[in-house]
Amino acid sequence: MTTQNPGAAMARVAAPGYVLDRREAVPALIGRHEDFLIVTGLAGTSKDLAALTDDGAHVYTMAGAMGGACMIGLGLALARPDRRVLVLTGDGELLMNVGALATISVLNPPNLSIVCVDNGHYGETGYQKSHTSLGVDLERMAAGAGIKTTRTVSTGAEIADAARVLREGNGTAFVLLRVTPSDPPAYRRNMDPAACRVRFKAALA
Q1: What is the pLDDT of residues 12-24, one digit of tens each?
Q2: Which residues pair with 114 in a beta bridge?
Q3: Is residue 3 part of a domain?
């Protein structure tokens, strides 16, 4: 990703505990991606999943609509209780609409899992430090909202347990995946929203 201000390179300083490489940790956590209908946030997570799935029809990647991923995932999980739904979003995107966690906890669909890929930076706008680099803990916020199954993954040894959590349980699960502020995979995904909507709708059938 091309940075958008001269200080961006200096801003890419990982906070303590942010040591995992997203290019390895995201695929390891998700495992068999075909098990899910997937909604992503914009920027890094959209590229993570587009690269992992080769821009698969079962993945709806966002662009520009910051803060919408969790609520779209909630609606999808309620509409399709027969399918497991995964939301993959970033710390900046989730901070834009963190109140969504309260609504999700109240409805508590058992087929919804949320992964927040937290690199402590706003990667879309130049890698300025986000609130999570400065002490905000999104897993604790999810738990405080009432989501009963939550995890923080900051080492490789914690990935297997979190991967299991994404597929099991009788309520919504939330996993915070802490990664270094490195670039996501370079992948040129389909940016035609109408075409993406049509193919995703076909994947629901």
Answers
A1: 888 888 999 999 9
A2: 87, 174
A3: no
